[in-house]
């Protein structure tokens, strides 16, 4: 059963975003470009953010993308992609949540690999396997609340990096540097809009 049918959103983009939210590899630029092209055909507001990420992926080396991923998600505990951490911290409830997600991943034949069951890309893959209402509940009750915390934590860092870019020596690529530093924030915003734009007034969703 196709998830989110009732939501009228481009769910076909979710598996690609899930892959891009994993540690980058040699296929990242090609996948990012293909996803941006597919988004263009949807006329969905997530398009501009996927295009921004694709531009960074195309113009950055694999080493640069890996460093950017680490800076974005691994160095600040408020930005990690383990959803249960943002919902429950280190409480007993997180252990319960991990056990429940591990069960659902195995039940739906999703290999978590070396990642924790509540790793965002794993949960995105899970939404594509669940029945529609179960997928919506997972998004609304778990993924979106955690994403809002992650995005909120990333904004001060983005602002600081953009401010630093403005004051780089003449000859430095200030605009491109600021865009590069915010690449994964763009990817998260694209995902956020996929889940929420259909609930917003048109002028807000395209802002």
Radius of gyration: 17 Å
Shape: globular
Number of strands: 0
Strand content: under 5%
Explain what the structure shows.
The chain is mainly alpha-helical and 207 residues long. The chain has one domain (5-205). The protein has 11 helices and no strands. The chain has helices spanning 14-20, 28-40, 47-59, 62-74, 83-88, 92-107, 120-127, 132-166, 174-181, 183-196, 202-205. Helix 1 (14-20) runs antiparallel to helix 2, helix 1 (14-20) runs antiparallel to helix 7 and helix 7 runs antiparallel to helix 8 (132-166).
Outline of the structure:
The chain is 66% helix and 0% strand. It has 207 residues and is an all-alpha fold.
Features:
single chain, 207 residues, mainly alpha
Layout of SSEs?
Layout: H1 14-20, H2 28-40, H3 47-59, H4 62-74, H5 83-88, H6 92-107, H7 120-127, H8 132-166, H9 174-181, H10 183-196, H11 202-205
Helix pairs in contact: 1-2, 1-7, 2-3, 3-10, 7-8, 8-9, 8-10
């Amino acid at each position: 059963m196709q998830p989110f049918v009732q939501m009228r959103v481009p769910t076909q983009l979710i598996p690609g975003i899930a892959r891009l939210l994993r540690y980058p590899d040699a296929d990242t630029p090609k996948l990012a470009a293909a996803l941006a092209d597919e988004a263009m055909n949807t006329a969905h507001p997530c398009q501009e953010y996927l295009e921004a990420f694709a531009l960074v992926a195309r113009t950055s080396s694999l080493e640069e993308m890996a460093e950017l991923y680490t800076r974005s998600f691994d160095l600040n505990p408020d930005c990690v992609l383990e959803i249960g951490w943002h919902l429950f911290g280190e409480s007993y409830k997180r252990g319960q949540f991990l056990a429940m997600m591990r069960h659902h991943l195995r039940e739906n034949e999703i290999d978590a690999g070396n990642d924790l069951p509540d790793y965002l890309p794993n949960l995105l893959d899970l939404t594509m396997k669940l029945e529609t209402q179960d997928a919506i509940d997972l998004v609304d009750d778990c993924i979106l609340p955690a994403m809002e915390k992650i995005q909120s934590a990333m904004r001060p860092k983005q602002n600081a990096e953009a401010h630093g870019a403005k004051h780089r020596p003449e000859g430095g690529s200030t605009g491109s540097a600021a865009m590069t530093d915010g690449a994964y924030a763009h990817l998260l915003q694209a995902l956020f809009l996929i889940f929420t734009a259909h609930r917003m007034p048109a002028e807000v969703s395209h802002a």
